[in-house]
Amino acid sequence: MIFNCHTHIGDAFVSLPKGKWSVEELFTPPHGLKHRMLSKASEQIIIDGMKKAIDIMEKCGTSVFIDFREGGVDGVKMLIEAVKGRKIFPIILARPKELEYDEREVDELLSTADGIGISSIYDWNEEDVKMLAEHTHEKRKIFALHASEIRREDIEKIIELKPKFIVHLCRANEDDIKRIADKGIGVVICPRANSFFNLKPPVEYLLEYKVKVMLGTDNAMIVKPDIIEEMNFLIKNFNVPEEKAIDMIEKNPTNFFEEILKKMLHS
Ligand SMILES: [Zn+2]
Questions:
Q1: Separation of 6 CA from ligand 1 center, angstroms?
Q2: For the segment 235-259, what is each residue's pLDDT rounded down to a tens digit?
Q3: How would residue 20 be classed by pLDDT, with cut points 50, 70 and 90?
Q4: What domains, with CATH codes, occur in the chain?
Q5: What distance in angstroms lies between residue 146's CA and the mean position of ligand 1's atoms?
Q6: Can you tell me the distance from the alpha carbon of 242 to that of 121, in angstroms, rounded to the nearest whole number?
Q7: CA-based torsion, 251, 253, 256, 259: positive or negative
Q8: pLDDT in tens, 55-72
Q9: Distance 254 CA to ligand 1 centre (A)
Q10: Residue 210 alpha carbon to ligand 1 centre in Å
Q11: Which of 109, 239, 256, 266 is the most core-located residue (most Cβ within 10 A)?
Q12: Could you tell me the distance, in angstroms and rounded to a whole number, from the CA of residue 182 to the centre of ligand 1?
């Protein structure tokens, strides 16, 4: 079973204007280009983009994808609509519409989504993000987030939130990675999306400390959600043995998400 462990297929409809872009200009909520485009676009345009991304994922043999779903409750509904009738299975990690904790909204999100997946903790105020994580754990759902993508972030603050997995870690240092390994937190890396911004995931340390590493393609507006291409990129550019790279899209996520897969197979 092949996994794509990190996507944002909601932005597949955006065609990126040529030029150099920083992560903040494109993706930091609420003013990054992606978020401006999402707030202007019709639901149908977003859903059509998602369907195209799903075509690409199915074509390369993906069985499960884990999507960080923007747009609150409506964003979750759009993904459910886009994936209707397909074989591929989405693990949906939603997020509140605004960068604020609202108990009722989170209850509603978690009634359909598999958990919460947010941008950086630094986009949030500390109390709100703590409440959001606690609420997710109370409901026994997955809490995940991006971390240390363009600057090193406080790993202890992140660990306190008890994430199941973290995405990126390009700027994490060796000690941060040791801590993550000790805590059994998973790490999803997206080397092609990182290279678009001249960033690199810390593959050597992740393997050295035996972190549970998985692979994702990140934002569909900059990288096609083809996990086989992602794996080949990793093998070619990071000196990762083929066998280990295959584990990152098959064995590692199958073990790591065992519980949710069991539920999926029984539903
Ligand atoms: Zn992402």
A1: 6
A2: 999 989 999 999 999 999 999 999 8
A3: confident
A4: 2-266 (3.20.20.140)
A5: 6
A6: 34
A7: negative
A8: 999 999 999 999 999 999
A9: 20
A10: 23
A11: 109
A12: 24
